[in-house]
Amino acid sequence: MPASFTHRFCTAPLLDWSDRHCRYMWRLLSKRAVLYSEMVTTGAIIHGDRQRHLQFDAAEQPVALQLGGSNPAELAECARIAEDWGYGEINLNCGCPSDRVQSGRFGACLMAEPEVVAEGLAAMRAAVSVPVTVKHRIGIDDMEDYAGLTRFVEAQAAVGVTTFIVHARKAWLSGLSPKENREIPPLKYEMVYQLKRDYPQLEIVLNGGINSIDECLQHLEQVDGVMLGRAAYQTPNLLAEVDSALFGEAPGPGPVEVVQQMLPYIERELVSGQRLNHITRHMLGLFQGLPGARRFRRHLSENAHRPGAGIEVVEHALSLVTQAA
């Protein structure tokens, strides 16, 4: 596995959030984090607008594509396409509990069918030379015993998968919304720690409920890597600490510098037809907890969506922060 894909720190695949604009900003904050795309279904890639679903900036690397699906032939085809587009890893979603995902027979419901998952992962591995990984829960519904978790992991390891990203909550496939499934089932970190102790040859990455770099460091005493989702999105400056705290390298830039570095990217994207608010919506949390943060958010929220909104909206929002400082 390439050194760039050591999963010591990752950002999570976040539907509607971790798009290419968000990932570009995240990469400015951390050179070492592995960035994951939103989940893209096999059908969307095979039959849909590949440019919209797969486009990314080379600066985002190392970047991984997360696929949703269960048909081995379709998964293999999409893995090949993603590798051709330049993605450095293909990840299979076995953790999303939404009804729409279940109806398509992918996501968390696949944990009940470890052999089906193994067949899909084997097909993907045979199709590409980049790493193929899986993201899953500790269990679903009444299947939450440790033996059930290990049965799932062993089935995937048997076809050569070595990296497992484990959300340390089970998922209820009925009765809870996706949002509730991220909050109500209790976190059971010890099950993930035990998985690493019992399968030391596997790379085990912990996901779920991690909100700070200090928490990352504590978990890294037990597992190989950590994955942050909402904390990284809502307080992106947290990512500026990653390279120094976890890799012993220089810290990332401050929020003012990040906005300044985003300006040329925004100008390029506007020229290509993108709307300003599609980019700036990911920047709203940059000054979280700092003087002027509310004014920065408000100015972008009230103005970036307007027809013809350009770079001057971002420059003015930044001036409100620097005045407050």
Number of helices: 16
CATH homologous superfamily placement of the largest domain: Aldolase class I
Instruction: Return the domain count.
Output: 2
The structure class reads alpha/beta
CATH class of the largest domain: Alpha Beta
Mass-distribution shape = globular
Overall pLDDT, averaged? 94
Question: What share of residues are in beta strands?
Answer: 15-25%
Radius of gyration, in angstroms, nearest whole number:
20 Å
* Level-2 CATH architecture of the largest domain: Alpha-Beta Barrel
Number of strands: 8
Tell me the CATH topology of the largest domain. TIM Barrel
Main beta-sheet annotation: 8 strands, parallel, barrel
Query: Order of helices and strands, N to C?
Result: EHEHHEHEHHEHEHHEHEHHHHHH
Percentage of residues in helical conformation: 40-55%
Strand order of the largest sheet: 1-2-3-4-5-6-7-8
Low-pLDDT windows of residues: none
